[in-house]
Design brief:
Protein name: Retrovirus-related Pol polyprotein from transposon TNT 1-94
Region (Disordered): 211-232
Distance between the termini: 120 Å
Domain CCHC-type: 263-278
Number of domains: 3
Radius of gyration: 59 Å
Number of helices: 10
InterPro entries: PolX-like_BBD, Znf_CCHC, Znf_CCHC_sf
Pfam families: Pol_BBD (PF22936), Retrotran_gag_2 (PF14223)
Strand content: 5-15%
């Protein structure tokens, strides 16, 4: 039903080619009494009956199964054709209304910016053909004028050339479409060339801009680094030295361990003596070898002439032993280590 106009056009063309269109469009008169007819009239009647049956068969085969049921009770091709026309095209009043809409569509149609000339002409031609099916034929001159006045601005130059060089009314539609198509192809080739050139120019501009931005960025980074160095220098100059750690760059009140106790063992701030990690580091080192004789090496040095203050030194340790405590200037009594002697016994220093 939606493409009835196209279906009708195809069938009409087929009927004309088979010399059946007169039977379908006008029908024929079949007399009630055929006995009185002459042989020539009977032959003509038989010929009309055959053509009518052939046309009706074509209509039944061309229509779908659902539509064919609507014409299954008719006995002539003209009746079947009239039924289909009235159902899908309407009566005379409906056709007049549809033709009115088609005229308005033809008058208001314009070319879109995204369309090519072939597509636009296809839309116009479709409207013209529908109007022709409803009984209104648009002349070729009117179609040419419609195309020329409804083109987009990019066709202004070719339209002016056509209007000045020849009479538009004498120009055929096919020739006009050919001229407009050639102009369109020329415009497209120019656009492609310009696009390549513009892309190349844009690339050069971007490269130049990137180089400029890179130079500015490097200069800005150098300036920032210089300023930061100046700021750091100024800041260090502001605070000469800390009263706790004796290091420049910050005041005593900004020192990390400001207000915390100072260790009396290592003289470092931030912890007390009993928590000092350096206090218990002194341990005696000894080497024990299995399946071998264990020995203690020592050195002897006289600390006085009478030999009463002899020293015994363990060469593998950093701690010193003496039998007389009074000879030491400073003793760390917190260090308690065990020493293995040469006879294998252990003693605590």
């Amino acid at each position: 039903g939606e493409n009835f106009d196209l279906w009708k056009l195809k069938l009409k063309t087929y009927f004309i080619s088979q010399k059946l269109w007169d039977i379908v469009q006008s029908g024929y008169i079949k007399p009630n009494n055929t006995i009185t007819l002459s042989k020539e009239e009977q032959k003509k009647l038989e010929d009309c009956d055959q053509k009518d049956a052939q046309a009706l068969f074509v209509l039944q085969q061309a229509a779908g199964e659902t539509i064919a049921r609507r014409i299954m009770d008719v006995d002539t091709a003209k009746k079947a054709w009239d039924i289909l026309e009235e159902e899908f095209e309407g009566n005379e009043q409906v056709r007049s209304i549809k033709l009115h809409y088609l005229r308005r569509e033809f008058e208001t149609i314009k070319m879109k910016e995204s369309e090519i000339i072939e597509e636009y002409y296809g839309r116009i031609k479709e409207i013209v053909n529908k109007m022709k099916l409803y009984g209104k034929e648009i002349k070729e001159k009117r179609v040419v004028e419609k195309i020329l006045i409804t083109l987009t601005e990019k066709y202004d130059s070719i339209v002016a050339s056509i209007e000045t060089s020849s009479d538009p009314s004498s120009l055929s539609v096919n020739k006009l479409i050919g001229l407009l198509g050639a102009h369109e192809a020329r415009l497209n080739s120019c656009v492609d060339t310009n696009s390549v050139e513009n892309a190349f120019q844009l690339k050069l501009k971007l490269q130049s801009k990137n180089r400029e931005d890179g130079g500015k960025k490097n200069a800005g980074e150098y300036s920032r680094n210089k300023d930061s160095r100046n700021f750091s220098g100024n800041k260090k100059d502001k605070y000469l030295s800390c009263g706790i750690c004796n290091k420049p760059g910050h005041a005593k009140k900004y020192f990390w361990h400001h207000g915390k106790p100072i260790c009396h063992y290592c003289n470092k701030p931030g912890h007390m003596e009993k928590y000092c990690r350096n206090k218990n580091k002194h341990q005696a080192n000894f080497v024990e070898e299995h399946n071998q004789e264990q020995r203690l090496s020592y050195a002897k040095q006289e600390s006085c002439d009478n030999g009463d203050g002899s020293w015994y030194l363990d060469s593998g340790c950093s701690n010193h032993m003496a039998k007389d405590q009074s000879i030491f200037v400073d003793i760390d009594s917190s260090v308690k280590v065990k020493v293995r002697l040469g006879n294998g016994t252990m003693m605590e220093s």
